[in-house]
Automatic annotation (TrEMBL):
SUPFAM superfamilies noted in UniProt: Cytidine deaminase-like
The organism of origin for this protein: Cyclopterus lumpus
Binding site for substrate: N43, V44, E45, N46, A47, S48, Y49
GO biological process, one term: nucleobase-containing small molecule metabolic process
UniProt keyword list: Hydrolase, Metal-binding, Zinc
GO CC, alphabetical: cytosol
Protein family: Belongs to the cytidine and deoxycytidylate deaminase family.
UniProt enzyme class: hydrolase
Keyword Zinc among UniProt keywords: yes
Protein name (Swiss-Prot/TrEMBL): Cytidine deaminase
Pfam families on file: dCMP_cyt_deam_1 (PF00383)
Active site (UniProt): E56
Catalytic reaction annotation: cytidine + H2O + H(+) = uridine + NH4(+); 2'-deoxycytidine + H2O + H(+) = 2'-deoxyuridine + NH4(+)
Length: 134
């Protein structure tokens, strides 16, 4: 199975693991690292809503713990069937921490997808490069 199809499959599987008793809005993400590993994440809600962690950030945090900081792609999915849904603004900013060259696959529950990029999803982004200029 190609890494792309495996990435999409893993994000769909991760969505099924979401802990979302409050919103009932499961989200899954799968990140492809520069060396070919796939790291997954799902949203994990909390009764104190502000402490909820999105699927994309869960995947990034897991990847960093496993020693990965270079990424090439992410696939994200939720249960919305009639349109493609992208990461929230906070997740877009967290992804940008690790570069702007990500391919982003917005994936519907049936596996259909729309390919975009992090640069398209977060134009004129604030990045670590801005801090280096001070």
């Amino acid at each position: 199975m190609s890494s792309f199809f495996l990435l999409v499959s893993k994000c769909l599987q991760a969505r099924d693991m979401a802990y979302c008793p409050y919103s009932r809005f499961p989200v899954g993400a799968a990140i492809l690292t520069a060396d070919g590993a796939i790291i997954t994440g799902c949203n994990v809600e909390n009764a104190s809503y502000g402490l909820t962690v999105c699927a994309e950030r869960t995947a990034v945090q897991r990847a960093v713990v496993e020693g990965h900081t270079r990424f090439t792609a992410i696939a994200v999915t939720c249960d919305i069937k009639d349109r493609f849904v992208g990461p929230c603004g906070a997740c877009r900013q967290v992804l940008m921490e690790f570069g702007s060259d990500w391919i982003v696959y917005l994936t519907k529950p049936d596996g259909s997808y729309k390919e975009t990029s992090l640069s398209e999803l977060l134009p004129l982004a604030f990045s670590p490069a801005h801090l280096a200029k001070n």
